[in-house]
Amino acid sequence: DRGELFRKALTAIRLAKFGEAKYLLEKSLEEEAGSDWSPNVLFWLGLMNERLARYETALGIFHECASLYPKHRYAPLALMHQVENFLKLRDKPSAKLALKKIIKEYPGSVYAKRAKKRLAELGK
Predict the structure, then answer these.
(1) Among candidate residues 47, 53, 56, 59, the one with its CA nearest the CA of residue 22
(2) 69 Cβ neighbours under 8 A, 6+ residues apart
(3) Alpha helix (H) residue ranges in the chain
(4) Which end of the chain is more exposed for a tag (fewer CB within 10 A), N or C?
(5) Tens digit of each residue's pLDDT (9 = 90 or more) over 65-74
(6) Quick one: DSSP state of residue 106?
(7) pLDDT tens digits, one per residue of 75-119
(8) Cα 95 from Cα 85, distance rounded (Å)
(9) Three-state SS for 15?
């Protein structure tokens, strides 16, 4: 059944079984690469890696989500999560670049407004 692994992963997330969810999301991504599920799976996989303090891995996954699916509803949110992961890794310059990208690529979105506020907090 298409999406079955993804649905099981979401159930694991609701039960706070993040390691299990990460595994299920990775399997889902392997089995359904390039499908309409892919942006969702990538986003949630990024979240699980973030939750498990695998910030560098999360950064790569969020980048992939936003780059491969720039028009998907999760793309700007993936970039916002990149910002937080960069900051957790003490990489303020990269966080600022990601914020500027959100402002440029999603100018009318709620994320652009948040990015402007966050950029001001970090100091231009």
Answers:
(1) 47
(2) 38, 39, 42, 75
(3) 4-14, 18-31, 38-51, 55-68, 75-88, 92-105, 110-122
(4) N
(5) 999 999 999 9
(6) S
(7) 999 999 999 999 999 999 999 999 999 999 999 999 999 999 999
(8) 8
(9) coil
